[in-house]
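Margin note: ligand = 6-O-phosphono-beta-D-fructofuranose.
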Amino acid sequence: MGARLIIVSNRVSVPDSPRTPLAGGMAVAVKAALKNRNGMWFGWSGKVSDPPPSEPQVVDVNKITYVLIDLSTNDIQEYYNGLANSVLWPILHYRVDLQEYSRADASGYMRVNRMFADRLSALLREDDVIWVHDYHLMLLGRELRSRGHRNTIGFYLHTPCAPPDILQTLPHHREILGGLTYYNLVGFQTENDRDNFAHYLVSQGAAQNRSGYEFEGQKVRLGAFPVSIETKAYMRLARNAGRSAFVALVRESLGGSRLVLGVDRLDYSKGIPDRVKAFERLLENHPEWRGKATLIQVTPKSRSDIKQYGDIEAEVTGLIGKVNGRFGDAAWTPIRYVNRSYSRTVLAGLYRSAHVAMVTPLRDGMNLVAKEYLAAQDPDDPGVLVLSQFAGAAKELDHALIVNPHETDAVAAALKRALEMPLDERRERHAPMLAHLLEYDIKTWAEDYLSTLVEGAPGRRLLEGIRALFGVSSLNGPLAFR
Ligand code: F6P
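Resulting structure:
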């Protein structure tokens, strides 16, 4: 039957499911990577049940099998809200100050990783290639190995990876982060993230050899594979969506004022307060833009049971209220703040209509909003991307207006420059970035990662299987951004 690609992640995005989660970067990328491949996507159903049913739910859509398991209230508390999102997430995003570690959460994290391994174990064939995604499942590789699985197993981290001094603030870091060495290949968004993890391993006594690193008897390879988007399809989607009735209504409601757009999950890593302050500074220093530019900030709520997320929500709401009270008038609201998610189509239409996109996270693995915004533009009359130097995307999208989100004056100045940028310069900046995204799209990302994963590790038979089944065109070709 040949090799299958088994994707494992905490979130699973089942097409047309009423429980389809917020489209984070991971879900968008994995969905595109599975397209046209013989594959299975295994993970959490998004449902909480006590106790969870012993059998997973299996759904087949467009040749992809989705295998979904429920989590218990305790699992959500200790694993998802606990170690994954109150400890690993802040540490990986350099926010050591926000981590809240507890032994109960650490043991819940291990329990859920073991449970994923038990459930998955029963479904695996010898020649399946397994690709695990994100920080929720760092220990899954080790658990599968301890159940005797010798498959090729890869891991990809969608978040940034902080330097060793920060990683070492994680209690029991050797056990949790060292778990990544049970994978054949660990992929990162940027070379900086990869190097940070390599330095961490070496700081813990790992030996570097020609092909990778050896740590406590485990051999692992590391690589940088910047995640991307389905560029061509997104361009098409945005062209059509720009003509949709809802998007026309939004444009009309702006009454000639320029649209500045921000789209982020409500998360402290996204730098939303800093962005609001920069927009306020623009209005403060450049009164000519009052009534002439409107910031629409689309911000679906996220991980709301975690205190730090409640805090950021209160901060953002307070700041936006203050700016609107200070500069708004009966005929114009400076910032429209929307706590809801829109369909992919509506978002694409909003991107197409926006004169400026502000993608200014304090720290971000990649940030696919930046890439989608560029793909959505009319190449003859494109908008301008203002991009944080701390988003992984800044390494590739260097024709954007790159800013330090901590420097309010500089972000306000970049915003003014973006709003006033002449057409020629907008085109000159947009064209090379679009060309790059057309070349390094999501297909290239998946092929690049998968070909590196299977390279050298398994026998020739599996290589052939991958080539045939996953449409990998060049298993030994040059690898972009390694
Ligand atoms: O992209 C990082 C990530 O944590 C994904 O793993 C996740 O799907 C997305 O952000 C959204 O977060 P959550 O699954 O916690 O809603």
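The chain has 17 helices and 16 strands.
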